[in-house]
Amino acid sequence: MSTVRHATKESARREFENWAPSYDRSILQRLVFGPSYRAFMEELVRWRLNDPAPFDVLDVGCGTGSWLAMIWSTSLPSGRLCGLDYSHTMCRLAADKATERGERRAAFFNGDSEHLPFADGSFDLLTCSNSFHHYPHQAQVVREFRRVLRPGGRLMIIDGFRDNLIGWVAFDVLVTRREGKVYHAPWSVMRKYYVDAGFSEVTQRKFNIWIPLFITIGVA
Ligand SMILES: C[S@@+](CC[C@H](N)C(=O)[O-])C[C@H]1O[C@@H](n2cnc3c(N)ncnc32)[C@H](O)[C@@H]1O
To answer: Pocket around ligand 1: residues whose beta carbon is below 6 Å from it?
Structure first.
């Protein structure tokens, strides 16, 4: 079983190593990834609008770092902006983006969502968009996410919503055919991961009609 799971992670790494150079030009930026960053931003602004304290962010499965770039382009009082990705090339492109813009708060790490190279309670916000379905041990990952969050910190995960017909066709049929061994956790399963890992105030919302996505938020 664990060999099959290992193969799953390696196939994700191969897929994204190949995709990384053209990732920012993909049509999916407009259809899926861009709407995801905007959903994160709406939630972040709602949460931090009246709080002037700096906050530290970790984005897991950060890809080319576009979501963190969106944060550093605002006047929000962000502290450290860390990205972690299993693909070395994704990390390098994300780091180049930060360097080009002279962004010193950003740092990128090549690593696995299951073993985050950070001490307990290191971040105020952990985000993860369109990456979670690649993780073979999802419950363990959510516990790991909670470990690195400070008390009162937020976890926001966005992934494909496959609980209606459109979502089932998009994710369980088409994406699975393209990406192979992936698992889009249903709405109720995602909620259970959060509750079992000890998150409180768990809320969920669906967005994006034709390629439906959902965001799950919890408080550590
Ligand atoms: C579809 S991309 C999403 C990137 C970015 N979050 C976005 O929304 O544009 C999925 C990313 O997850 C990363 N990934 C896959 N498995 C991972 C793992 N086990 N740990 C960390 N990152 C992983 C891939 O390398 C890829 O960059």
So the answer is: 9, 12, 16, 33, 36, 60-63, 66, 85-87, 90, 112-113, 129-131, 134-135
